[in-house]
Input
Amino acid sequence: MSSPNNGPSSLQIALMLASGLILLFLATGDAGAAGPKIPRLANGKPDFSGIWQTTSAADYDLEPHSNRKDAPPGAGIVEGHYLPYLPAALEQKKKNFAARDTLDPALKGYTLGVPRGIYYPEPFQIFQRKQDLTLVHQFGHSVRTIHTDETDHPKDPYDWWLGDSRAHWDGDTLVVDVKHFNDKTWFDRAGNYHSDALHVIEKWAFIDPNTVEYKATVEDPKVFSKPWNLSVILHRHREKDFQLIEDYRFTLDYDDAYPPKPNKP
Amino acid sequence: MTQINPGRSALVSGLAISVMLTAAPSLYAADETKKSEAPAAKPAQPATKPLKLGGPGIEQERSFPKIVSGKWTGPKTADGQPDVQGHWSNTIANHNNFTDPQGGILNDPNPNRVAKGPREERAPSRVSDPADGQVPFQPWALEKVKDFQAHFHDPVKPEYIEPLARCAPGGIPKSLFWHGYEISQYPGYVLFQFNSGTRIIHLDGKPHLPENIKLWNGDSRGHWEGNTLVVDVTNQNGKALFGRSGEFISENGHIQERYIFSNDGDRYTYEAVLSDPTVYTRPFTVTVPARKWTAKDQPNGWHFEVEPANYTGKVALKEPILDQYERICAENNGGFGLVAAEEPKK
Output
């Protein structure tokens, strides 16, 4: 610096004032919460609207595993590494694993269930209003509504592929209670599974405006000896013009049958 | 999922027959038809059944008001869209028959389901232009449609299975006269949740997907003009049929939709212009009337598949919150009449 003056120039003062204002904005723009400003609905609740996807290899196998022909290696996403199977359930899991290339429900195009739909390696989009979040999964026919309207599970429930999701806010964390599942979905491609007694408690929270930490506590007394926890990080898709592209698979085997074509007898 | 061999048809033998697991009372029009038609104990039925808007059954009315495009004076969403959120359904019939919506399925072997009385006593064709109410098919395409109609009840080849029975999305325009559906709105989007497939209408003007991507529900770009949601649909795969009468568009087609809402929020008129120089001789217009279903209406297994939610809040509600249970389908791969079965009968 070669300025002959001892004091700051007017340009320097302006810069200092501007940066001070920016710092003040960053500090107060978040209603006291730490970290960068996250998107919010008009009612002040975190707004998870957007298209999300995990980069984890969770869908190959929730548990730690070396590489194999149909999966890259992975450290797993389960707290404590291994699922606390009951002895008979562990035997079933081994059978599932051995036949995974034919039995995995995802291979048939079936709805992935909860929590698998969240960490399956395809994007899903959250549409959020004050009263609910609607999750549209690119894969399959899955549309799941998470209710945030002070409603509880139905008194006379069915069993559903995606369960019944009722949520409340714990500060900036969305806590979702999901139950009333059927037993037709798996947790991953490695045959980890559940019964219709599955109960999932999800916690959704922003790490920053484009990153969400998703945690789930899973319990199923018919299959596991105790509840267990998993977590994945979800990233916001920010590519230009990114959108979901429908991925319905039931009819792929019959694709040639439709539509009618003039040159086909 | 269970594999069964119905032992009746060479076609379905060996195909996976899975159970449709849904909270909806039925995915199959046949069931509803059976319920709503009187048994054939009496020799003669009245030419026309009384219809009631908001009543039970699929058919709600035989004629309907035409709503025209204009200003929107009703409520708006926070981002300025006309607020049309809620449960909606068509008012005249399901997808049994595209051009004679209340005329029953063509060539139906069950005499109880064959339409009675003159054509004028039933709702008009969904084809509102040309005036004859028929799709202006090129000769080869008309032949294919007639072939499908001839085999709908005897599906001896895979193409005679209506794709919806394989859990394919209903496609456009059929989704709008299949079961009831829900419209919800968000900044930049209108979302249609159908029982078979979801449509995301993008309002942000982004370009359509590259043309070689083909989708059951196409790729939709919309914008609002007063009371009218205008949607441009491309990229459809042409595989969805318009009904059990077999009408279709190919992957070369283009659909321009107008959803014209009444300012009282009770109804809309759907008008779509379908063009496809490889299938039709000229563009034609499809008109479908729809009405909103609210907590004032009785739940209805076709149009309004809801149950009161288990509200636990302390503030008294103006009207009950309604749960629409899971919209899902597992393939059944059957022809008409061969509905899902969990276990083979012994």
Remarks:
- Chain B touches chain A through 63 residues (CB under 8 Å).
- The CA atoms of residues 190 and 201 of chain B lie 5 Å apart.
